[in-house]
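User: Hi! I'm working on a homework problem where we have to compare a predicted structure to a textbook description. Could you give me the structure for the chain below?
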Amino acid sequence: MSLNPTEVAHRLVDIASDLQAEDIVLLDIRELASFADYFVILTTGSDRQTRALRDDMVKRLKASGVSISHAEGRPDSGWLLLDFGDVIVHIFGPEQREFYQLEELWSRAPQVVRIQ
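Assistant: Happy to help. Predicted structure tokens:
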């Protein structure tokens, strides 16, 4: 069973919420970018939480037939990118999220979900 991009995006939001990530945002970037359909942006409070989130996202999506295409960054760097093809996850530490302000850069993208 393989999931469509919308289902993948919502599954990733659910996983982030289950693992108590903060300020989770799902942006629909389909009208603005050709490289992906959705961004999931979230904040974690520690390297340990970032690792757990990364590992759980990869494991649970793989079980649903969705593999990770690419990853960048390190849990201890304050930023981690997980590329699931049509859905890209940005996991930030609080300072890095404030610095990069992705929601502002992609402010024309509709917010599908926001969990604070």
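For your comparison, note the following. The chain has a mean pLDDT of 95. The first helix runs from residue 5 to 18. Good luck with the assignment!
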